[in-house]
Design goal:
Chain lengths: ~325, ~325
DNA sequence: TTGTACGCGTTATCAC
DNA sequence: GTGATAACGCGTACAA
């Protein structure tokens, strides 16, 4: 069963033609007679020939790999986001003959990314998360490595693909306010994540839009909440303050909050309503079902990959791509 | 800032030596004068030289990539297992100068893996899950590609790294039985996964060990449970049958079960006890805390990678590596 | 200790 | 339409 890795040269000799001819037949490039083309292709097919991408890469200075940068924190394992993203990227890349090389960036350490780039192991890179002051992004730009960022950034020149978090959060918050809620709280994560800022702005957009009507809305915003303990303390405070609705920026926080409420035997939505700015399977099975926003993460990855491959082909691509969302009103709020 | 990718040849010309000398200085192999070595190394350092791994690979028929095979089902996104695994693999590989190439295998479709292998893009492969009749495993063996399987398999010749699921499940079940439980139920997932079988055997081991004492243990075993609906139906039946303790084979099932119990207002552990054969952050924050087994998944990935790299270096490695576990008795059962 | 020459498998550039 | 031949960047016998 072991195949002896035949080369373009083997085929040439067997068929008494030149390497050039075989190469042309395989690639479809250049002038070549229909008959010889068929002969070569048939032979290649019959003998399970597959070109050596490494050599091809050496000749064209390409690798047919794209780098995917993942945050290496333990916390990411909680979130299905990156895996779904990966699925979209991997599928699309595969279709175009590319493979995906992994790099984990942990905190300030981006040595894995640096190695991959220095070793020229990838033709381009996809960042799966953006920070307000993003070191990997700066690095890639400095090195002149083509890359696409999943998530938004202020920078005008980098190619970005993102869900429209701001509009989505504005919509959801708006719906909540329309249902008559006044004392509304927002719990969010790391302020350095661009997405945190966008969600916050969407929230504020909705507040502003509803504030004009002379309504006495009392918002509370709590950022940089990053573990279960903080959620517990904050929840306690909010409940004492008779908050009507707590909006969480992501599922992790929402999961924590629901646990706290369950322990304290606080009824949702009767005593307090709960909503989340992000919907994943983590919350999917919860009782009661949580009002939240749905994004197609696999599509996000797919689109990012598509943009990157286009760039590698020398095409011009649009700087911003915003993908849609779906607001899901469910039992927990609204 | 853009570096103009200088080559070994550029250095040779600049220093008026031959490529060979430079190559030797860089690799450390072969005899070379200390002074010239320093000169070359200094120059390389100063000009940020980094070797072209592609060319190197072509010359030595190596890629310095290892393939990591992930199941491409949507369900995997639920489980932090694969991400933690990835972390361990990626960290270890990186330390040894290797990178990780992703391949997703979905159902019967392993075209991504086949492409990666056919294109000689990896030196070896790590399978992150084993099936009873594993097609990717057969494929890799046929092709003669070095690989390590995370998880166990009957096959005597493949190198395997796994947690000792059987012993772990025996221990946990034993503890539960010792605490006086008699009507105990086991809910498990896909029977085709080897790990499902191992957990089942551990469960049965414990039953056998405690059955001898003339105890009237009434076990119930339910496999191939794969979605929330099935869990709900099964839970209903078990509760009517006055089951004392429900053991879930993994966190996903356990999460579903807890949701059902919460909805039906069934008290844990007062009315029914709950335990899980796998502990992850998914359950970590649950109230009450769930009795379960803990594995160090990152260590698992690290070990698998270590074994594979050893194989690539031509070393002989042990066929089976079993890593430990920790039984965590918590409020929910025991 | 250092240098020469060739091979790795492919594409690109010419000439025929 | 087809075929030599030279890159691509590096490792490595073998020679000096």
């Amino acid at each position: 069963m072991e195949e002896k890795n035949l080369t373009i040269d083997d085929i040439a000799q067997a068929l008494h033609v030149s390497k050039t001819t075989v190469s042309r037949a395989m690639s479809g490039k250049g002038r070549i007679g229909e008959e010889t083309r068929r002969r070569v292709l048939d032979y290649a097919e019959a003998h399970h020939y597959s070109p050596n991408v490494i050599a091809k890469g050496l000749a064209q200075n390409k690798t047919f790999n794209i780098g995917m940068v993942l945050p290496g924190d333990y916390r990411i394992a909680e979130l299905p986001f990156f895996q779904n993203c990966m699925l979209g990227i991997s599928r699309f890349a595969s279709l175009q003959g590319y493979d995906v090389l992994l790099s984990m960036v942990t905190g300030r350490d981006m040595s894995q990314l640096e190695r991959v780039v220095a070793n020229r192991k990838v033709d381009g890179v996809i960042l799966t998360r953006t920070l307000v002051d993003d070191a990997p992004m700066r690095y890639l730009r400095d090195k002149g490595v083509p890359f696409v960022a999943i998530g938004s950034t202020d920078d005008g020149e980098t190619v970005q693909v993102d869900n429209d978090h701001r509009s989505a959060c504005r919509d959801l918050t708006g719906r909540l306010l329309e249902s008559g809620i006044r004392r509304i709280a927002l719990i969010g994560g790391d302020e350095r994540l661009v997405v945190t800022g966008n969600r916050l702005r969407g929230f504020e957009d909705a507040l502003a839009a509803h504030g004009g009507k002379g309504a006495d809305i009392e918002p509370q915003i709590l950022l940089n909440v990053d573990d279960a303990d903080k959620v517990e303390r904050i929840a306690g405070g909010l409940l004492r303050g008779r908050t009507e609705c707590i909006v969480c920026m992501d599922d992790f926080l929402c999961g924590c909050l629901l646990n706290v409420l369950q322990t304290e035997r606080v009824a949702v939505p009767d005593r307090v309503q709960v909503a989340s700015f992000y919907d994943s399977s983590v919350l999917g099975n919860r009782i009661p079902a949580i009002t939240s926003i749905q994004f197609d993460v696999e599509a996000l990855g797919r689109k990012a990959c598509e943009q990157l491959l286009r760039m590698l082909d020398g095409e011009e691509v649009e700087r911003y791509t915003l993908l849609g969302y779906r607001v899901c009103m469910r039992e927990s709020a609204g």
